Amino acid sequence: HVQLVESGGGSVQAGGSLRLSCVPSGSFNTAPFCRAWFRQAPGKEREGVANIRSDGGTINTDSVKGRLTISREKGTNILYLQMNNLKPDDTATYYCTAAHDIRCWDDPKSSYFGTWGQGTQVTVS
Fold first, then answer.
1. Number of other residues whose CB lies within 10 A of the CB of residue 46
2. How far is CA 6 from CA 22, 33, 101, in A?
3. Is the pLDDT of residue 106 over 90?
4. SS3 content of the chain, % helix, strand, coil (to 5)
5. What strand order describes the sheet that includes 18-24?
6. Reduced to 3 states, what is the DSSP secondary structure of residue 61?
7. Alpha-carbon Rg of the chain, whole angstroms?
8. How many whole angstroms separate alpha carbon 96 and alpha carbon 38?
9. Is the pLDDT of residue 117 over 80?
10. Helix, strand or coil for residue 110?
11. Which residue did the predictor score with more confidence, 30 or 87?
């Protein structure tokens, strides 16, 4: 069972940048079809932010396009989320995750993702 550990969160002013990392504690037994970043703010539902497919294709939710970029390091399977031009609405706990269900790509619901990290807090003021 692979454990995922997020880091890189913090407090920044609007317009600032952060880079989140998600480090697996071991190798995946089978390669996930999707790896993704989700976020959840108080009083709001958890939402998908960015998704990366096993072949490298990516997609972002409209609110973060052009500002947040997901990437994966092939050799280590570390997942990154580069966050630029941050806004107060980006304030949330950010979680990384992985899925083997092919539905994770076209309809990235959280229920399709079976492995989650503990989350890292991002606060934008």
1. 14
2. 4, 20, 22
3. no
4. 10, 45, 45
5. 4-7, 18-24, 79-83, 68-72
6. coil
7. 13
8. 6
9. yes
10. helix
11. 87
